[in-house]
User: Fold these one by one.
Assistant:
Number 1:
Amino acid sequence: MNADRRSGRAFVFGDNVDTDALAPGLYMKGSIETLARHCLEALDSGFAGAVRPGDFVVGGENFGMGSSREQAAMVLRQLGVEAVIARSFAGLFFRNCLNLGLAPLECAGAGSIQSGDVLTVDPVAGRIINRSRAQTYSCVPIPDHLLEMVKDGGLLPHLAKKLERQRDVS
Amino acid sequence: MGRTLAEKIIARAAGRDFVQPGQIVTCRVDLAMVHDSSGPRRHKAMLEQLGAKPWDVSRIVVVTDHYVPAFDAESAAILDLTRRWVRDEGVANFYDMEGICHVILPERGHLRPGMFAVGGDSHSPTAGAWGCFMFGIGATEMCGVLVTGEIWLKVPPTHLVRWNGRLGEGVAAKDIMLALCRDVGLGTVKYGVVEYTGSAVAASSMAERMVLTNMSAELGAQTGIIAPDRVTVEALAAAGVSVPEAASWQGDADAIYAKVWEFDASALVPQVAAPHSPANAAPVGDHRGVKIDQCYIGACTGAKLDDLRMAASILRGRKVARGTRLLVAPASQRITAAAAADGTLAALAEAGAILMPSGCGACAGYGAGVLAEREVCLSSTARNFKGRMGHSDSLVYLGSAYTVAASAVTGRITDPRPMLAEKVAA
């Protein structure tokens, strides 16, 4: 996340969106750019071509179930997806999102969002505004220390920054 | 207040007397396992970027199983990079094309009850059958573990799943898990621990117990676990591991569970899960007659020696139907050797099964055996998500090795029990 509040369009999927759909095994050995072009194609063949930086992916229950492959989160970042909003997340995918700098927002109201709705998201306040429907949903706020990691771009840049600080001190 | 087995292991790894669900703790990692897809290929550059080295190579296990054997230039390069990293870092625990990581770990004596471990693969909960707390993580998080030897977690609540009674002839652990995917659901346990218990679990082999903990991933659990007993201790001994305190890793009698689920194994019939979810499970009879192009016995979930023997018990004296192919990829080289020694492989080959190398293969859509558009597969693996085994418009059904073998004989989804009964009669 580059700033604390961002607006974008919603791409809505159902329950149990799986990691094979996000990062298909057939393309796992290739580059992240290639893999991203096939992101979610089993569910919506037009998704990767239509999504633009700043947009949001919205799901139902258990978003990201399946594999540990963190490319499932990486491809969404590669495509510029700002955050994933879902009623609930698979635990492994949730951890991977944070580690890769993609905000996973657990939102009970996710079911009210329709494809194409314009959303403004404030992960610090835990608030999602649906501008197309004049609705506001609350989401589970991401704790400060984890949000800082997400803003840094994930665990690695965050660790690098931390190591840098330690080196400066010593 | 009583503690569950998982809580005891986490407390030990966190250096605390006591932990409770919801608490966030940092744990020392006893063992970190990676494979060719999630491992050096991903973490080598990350470690270099950080200028860091692995914290303890004696605690790292590397297995090549996803891109084996290499099938094109890219997969060959991934394997080459893996071998180079292992050599450069001096990782002794390296298993190159010898089997699937989750099967290799216990087979080569790396697991012992009470262990706290992480794996770069979502089916890492498999180790829970051996009384370990092991869960899957992504490659970036693994890089953090390799640097620090530690990982944080939010202590998960434990769900107790009790299977009373005994499984009937032709019914397997796979049927238990497909029924659980339907009856418990894929996300209900919300990254908690699923602990399996009951007379049906006690009566099952380690290989079958590993199916239960393996498919805990499908239930959305952080991991699955089974308290060690006499069967565990004997199997550990067979793998050359002698742990005097092995059987002492037990939950307390007054442990607090998020929920206790009770099921009757005696009433369970073979299950088949329809595309595109393991939760689409139903008694095999509900899918009877669905025509199958490919039958697949493979992967960490469904190609251990027990599975191969289940298939052989059906296939002896029978043939794979014309118009159907049966692919068998034993889960490890040692399993292949054992199956060759006891005549199991011969029974499969004589029936017309096509033997494949040990590896993850078609289960994850990698390598040989993937499906074309509109093709229908019945598989002993864990996942049938849309497009996972090949073309996004292929169809994958899941069943036990018994059911896959019986269906290979008829070319259609078939209840294995009458074929087994016929054998007994003959």
Number 2:
Amino acid sequence: MDMMLKGFEMVFTPSALGLLLAGVVFGNIIGFLPGLGGVFALAILIPFIYKLAPIDAFALLLGTHAVINTGGAITSILINCPGEAACAATCFDGYPMARNGKAGVALGAAFMSSAMGGVFAAGFLLVMIPIIRPIVMSFGPPEIFMLIVLGLSYIATMGTGSTLKALISGIMGFMLAMVGFDPQTGDARYNFGTLYLFDGIDLVPLTVGLFAIGEMISVGTMRGQGLARQIETVGSRADLWEGVRVCFSKWWLILRCSFMGATIGLIPGLGGTVSSFITYGFARQVSKHPETFGKGNVEGVIAPEAANNAKEGGNLVPTLGFGIPGGAGMALLLGAFIVKGIDPGPGMLKENLDLIYGMIMILALANIIGAAICMLFSAPLARLTLIPGPIVSSMVVLFCFLGSYGVKNNFYDILATLFFGFLGYIMVRSKYPRAPLLVGVVLGKAAELNFHLSLQLFGNFFFLRPITFFIFFLIVLGLALPPFLARRKRRRAYGS
Amino acid sequence: MDLKIEKIFSWFIFLFFGFLFFATWNYGAKARLAPLLMLVPGVILTGIHLWRIHRQPELIKEQGVDEEDGESYEITAPFDQEMWMVAWFIGFAALIWLVGFLVATPLFLILYLRLWAKETWTRILPLAVITTICIYLIVEWAFKIILYRGWISSFIE
């Protein structure tokens, strides 16, 4: 209880609140710019957290990440183009509402349901932390090692992409983590005589390059056109408030969809897109007017928006509790923990419990502030989508280079950013997912350390310990099941 | 085109893993254990993927990238245009190395936005000037970070 109060208190300082506000504004802007997402936003912010206190750094990062989907609703409703893939389900009814002159109602409902979903997410996390803490505290190096492998395998196997390519990408990341001094023996590995690689690969140029520069290569080609072509009018303030009022009358739907979103978020690898589409389908099933879905039913806006934001709470449970990133955004957040010298997972639950409670408060506040900002400034914010692509790309690249350089005042970091940017671009072109690579880099060193500790403490058969073996079983199941199901689906389709 | 890029990239990864596999044997037994445990499946999986690309290209084409958190984005621009973008970014880095941030920033913005984006001077000039001033004020003056001055500055000093 003391830790909880201490954590909440940490947030209510001028610096943390100021950075939270800055993060929320930035997150809202990135959220509604089509093609730019939460991972991109976090990637370009990471260089700026070096000199900040941990709570200030996470106020900025989590504040940004928590409201990405709130801002994403603006473009889904006004231009039928989701700012985030997770907001795609909002287009189905949001855009028809805008075409029917009810854009304000749709926006008001989207902002309010997002805020309610986000606050629910914070409450969900608050309940889950005391439940998982005793479990996590009993874990030793073998269990932690297996958890890391589980995290890598889950990220690799979830979703619709190729499991094989995701695993290759994860191994690439793991090998990048091996660059530099080996903590066990002091051997300098894979530096090939280069002084720059002696300390290993820095996370900042890697994340900035991989997720920001790669995107900018595409955005920069949009010559003579904005990120969006045309926008519908927002509507009056009264319409926005009408949307808010609708949310309070549909509180039971919001509660159920938020719970579904948070529960889906618990499973690493399942993103906001899954939660929003599932809850959209659910809202249609339980609606009194399912025939109006797709033609402008406000319930079709409320359900996915609440689930989108609630998902973050669920996502944070494996990230904070077990050190397993719930998705690409959470992998970046794990990277940020390492940048700040915090050991994510069991170590964090032991030593930084107050910070975790602070993050819960940040999550709740960010969602409320984010919705309020969108309510007040949705019309001028929407016009930012008309900025030409090359202007956006030139500014972002400049800030990426500045951010990477500023960490160590080393020009080689700019070259590393450029290299990883090109790698990220080629990976997208070749349909190799980038998230497993990042997860490999973030968790690689910890995996190696715990692997050696397990061998020393429990011998070669450390994985036969009960919990370790159970996690090992989950890994095998997670890796074997998706290809098996896909093959069966293909055979059935072929048979019919 | 994308399949060709995927094929080249996969071969690159395969050869890179192979190279690392041999390089790893130079390290001590403890230091090479974890990398080898990763590299062996890495080489095998990349080999399988390459085999599939050559034997079942239709199946590979169907498999889309799946980046969580909605980070997946479709590349629709022609490859040559994107290579131009890469060239612009490399040029910007080269310019920073040559003349430093404070000169390279306005130069890059003017050249890139005029020659590539065909923006108007009324938009380019204020943007270049304001951005450079903001960078100086925020990074050097407020954060006290000395920006890279460039290779040429060593001769001037």
